[in-house]
Amino acid sequence: MLSPDSAAIVRATLPVIAGAIQDITARFYDTMFADNPELLRDLFNRGNQANGEQRVALAGSIAAFATVLVERPGVLPGTMLSRIANKHASLGVTEEQYAVVHKYLFGAIVEELGDAVTPEVAEAWDEVYWLMAETLIGLERGLYREAGRGWTRATVVERREETADTVSFLLRPDLPMPFLPGQYVSVRVPLPDGARQIRQYSLSNSPERGDWRITVKRVRGEGAPEGEVSTWLYEHVRAGDVLSVSAPFGDLTLPEGDGPLLLASAGIGVTPILSMLDHLLATGSQRRVVVVHADRSPGAHVHREELAELVAALPGATLHRWYEDLPPAQARDAANGAGHATAVGRADMSAIDLPGDVVACLCGPLPFMRAVRAQLVELGVPDSGIHYEVFGPDLWLAAA
């Protein structure tokens, strides 16, 4: 919790900081990478830096954290911090790097705001930074301790073509490591320019299967840093190759208990949902599960048949699919009634009979998750019962 004096200063200066925070984070990253190019080359996602998403996400998280501190003293945004800590742990972020970030972030604040940053203002925001940093460091220590190891090697047992632009890899780590349905691993690859970039991929099968499966979508576009790791994996990796991978991390995991579930995905966001369904089947679950998936077309729907088979094998599960482009021959049950239904358009939660005590897990593009969340809230599902996973920087808070 902030000291009373710092809380008063942060409350008074928050509008100014928040108004300039994106310029601050842009200057912060530019300066830090100029002095420490290895961080951009081997740790930070170059694609997210190029398109500006990481800068927006950092700005949003800082503003959101400070707002919670002054508006709800004694409370920390646990979900946001857990998500950041898991991402950091999957990258191998160290405690020492928080001091590096502090140096360049506060240098950027002073450069952007000038004389407005008095010693008292600097001290108050320093307290905000280190409260957030020390909380994350503590969470990450626990995650590293639970994981028991850092980077490891995993052999590609099988490569399978899933769609025209998507492949799955079955991986066998050197030592067996458990994971929770919904978690992800980082994959670190050497690129032609000497960089060793890192990306996260959800584990798309159940823990009971032993081996890990990840699904990778190629991103088209010559020379674009967005998708450079996925494209490299798609084009170069074959059975028998060895990849450098992290232990499993991630906080969007299958909710415990036997209550009803809504598992909603769009596009490649289906991957953690598959892991959850596969685990429910492997453990003989009788839970009521409503599965929703939205995609461009049936042909673009990765793991389409597998998703339908898993739902069909679970006694309490139903499947509802929406496609923006659905050929007339495949359009059936447009009313989207009970059972395995397919319709044209975007996902519509009001068309589904949802239990009143349902817990929802969402994964997919941000616009999809925002739309589904808004529909669920309107239907009476509490915020505490809606969980989500973002592939890439979490821009949800930044746009709130």
Feature tags:
alpha/beta; Rossmann fold; 19% strand; 6-stranded parallel beta sheet; 400 residues; Elongation Factor Tu (Ef-tu), domain 3; 3 domains; Globin-like; 11 helices; 6-stranded antiparallel beta sheet; disordered C terminus
Largest sheet: 6 strands, antiparallel
End-to-end distance = 23 Å
Under CATH at level 1, the class of the largest domain stands as Mainly Alpha
Low-confidence stretches: 333-338, 396-400
How many separate helices? Answer: 11
Structure classification: alpha/beta
> Numbering strands along the chain, what is their spatial order in the largest sheet?
4-3-6-1-2-5
Number of strands: 12
Helix content: 40-55%
Indicate the CATH architecture of the largest domain: Orthogonal Bundle
Description:
With 400 residues, the protein is an alpha/beta fold. The protein folds into three domains: 4-147, Orthogonal Bundle (Globin-like); 152-245, Translation factors (Elongation Factor Tu (Ef-tu), domain 3, Beta Barrel); 261-399, Nucleotide-binding domain of ferredoxin-NADP reductase (FNR) module (Rossmann fold). It contains eleven helices and twelve strands. It has helices at residues 4-35, 37-42, 46-50, 53-71, 78-91, 96-113, 119-147, 228-236, 270-282, 304-313, 366-378, and strands at residues 152-163, 166-173, 184-190, 196-202, 212-217, 242-245, 261-266, 289-295, 317-323, 341-344, 359-363, 386-389. The strands form two sheets. A six-stranded antiparallel sheet has the order 4-3-6-1-2-5, with helices on one face. A hairpin with a 5-residue loop joins strand 3 and strand 4. Helix 1 (4-35) packs antiparallel against helix 4 (53-71), helix 1 (4-35) crosses helix 6 (96-113) and helix 5 crosses helix 7 (119-147). It starts with a helix and ends in an 11-residue tail after the last strand. This is nitric oxide dioxygenase.
